[in-house]
Amino acid sequence: MPFSVRHDEIEQPSPPSSAILISLVAGPLACRSDPAAVLVDGLRAPVRLIADESRIYWTDSLRGSVFSARHDGSDATLLAQEQGRPVGIALSDGLVYWASSGSGTLSRVPAEGGEPIVLVSGQSAPSLVAVRGGRLFWLNYGKETWEGYLPNTGAIVSANLDGTAIAIIADQQHRPSALLVDDANVYWSTLSTSSDPNDGAVWRFERATGHTSLVAGSLPGPRELGFSGIQLACANWGRTSSLDAFRTNGSIVRIDVTNGNVANVASDQQHPGALLSLGEDLYWSTRDDVSATSEIRHASSDAVDVTVSVRGRIPALIGEGAFLFAAINADANDPRGSVILRVPR
Fold first, then answer.
1. How far is 5 from 311, CA to CA, in rounded Å?
2. Do residues 66 and 56 make contact, with C-beta atoms less than 8 angstroms apart?
């Protein structure tokens, strides 16, 4: 039962129907197997997704809201509203956590609905969040001014799940842009500086010892990270220059965390992002600035193919069961607005 949130107020669900099949590009929507399905439409800017065995959860940054729905798009539920640019989202033990970049807060709400609680405030553009081992982890992108974000003002931070016992894992970071946490380590990326477009890096914090080390350097714009077996997968946006306005030199790589060796998976990718690692399979999105078309690409072994092609931008991609779920930020002239798309793997 798709629902519409096209206006300032949340509207009532539309009449029951099957998942809507649409063409987001000229002609049939390109998909490897069964048709892709729009589960929820009328969104403004869904930016991050997470899922459990029965539901998907997402943040809509421009609407300032957090939502959930069943895997078939039914029972769409508003969990929180009037949030300040919610971005990152996490799920643990029946609670949904999110980071609001605009208001500088970390909040949570019961997954079945309830009263949202602000856990932490006063942060500098918190954008990603993770929960592991009874701790909340988040990434502060940096201090924002009217001219943009100040360099070297980002941080990686953790706290108890109730927001107490805040600890700085790393500060003075230059625009940290990806965050991964497992039982032993915290990983994050920092972007290249304007003086050196090739000095992006991936870092590791050992939770047991408190030691921070460089995993891999000389990366051109590492924006997304994912676990890929015993390695890390990384999406690099690529170098930019006045002669390369469209960023066609992005790449997908695997990083050996034991020695920092970097192995190329796919090169010449345009705006690669929304990285998803499922075992040995890697999925990521690309964006063609000329045609305003995005693709979900898939790599397994040495082959790279296209899973789906849509009009719009794909900022988030997750996998659950036999499906991928993607957030599609539509162009301004798309009457459906932005959507959550379900794609067979």
1. 20
2. no
> Using a CB cutoff of 8 Å and minimum separation of 24, what contacts does 196-204 make?
197/221, 197/239, 197/240, 197/241, 198/239, 200/236, 202/178, 202/232, 202/234, 202/255, 203/170, 204/257
Residues 183, 134: contact at Cβ < 8 Å? no
**Is position 72 within any domain?**
no
Residues 6+ apart with CB under 8 A from 134: 160, 161
Nearest one of 250, 247, 251, 186 to 212, comparing CA atoms: 186
**Cα distance between residue 132 and residue 92, in whole Å:** 8
The model's pTM: 0.88
Q: What does the DSSP 8-state code read for residue 71?
A: T
Which CATH number do you get for residue 155?
2.120.10.30
- Residue 278 in domain: yes
The Cα–Cα gap between 109 and 78 comes to 11
201 is a domain residue: yes
Domain count, the chain: 1
Domain range enclosing 214: 77-306
For residues 333 and 336, give the distance between their C-alpha atoms in angstroms, rounded to a whole number: 9
CA–CA dist 237, 93 (Å, integer): 34
CA 182 – CA 52 distance, rounded (Å): 18
**Residue 319, domain member (yes or no):** no
**The amino acid at 258:** T
The residues with which 224 forms a beta bridge, in sequence order, are 235
Q: What are phi and psi of 42, to 5 degrees?
A: 75, 15
Specify the residue for token string 């997304």: 224
Per-residue pLDDT reduced to its tens digit, 117-146: 999 999 999 999 999 999 999 999 998 887
The per-residue pLDDT for range 277-332, each reduced to its tens digit, is 998 899 999 998 888 899 999 998 768 898 889 889 999 999 998 899 999 998 77
The residue with tokens 């798009």 is 73
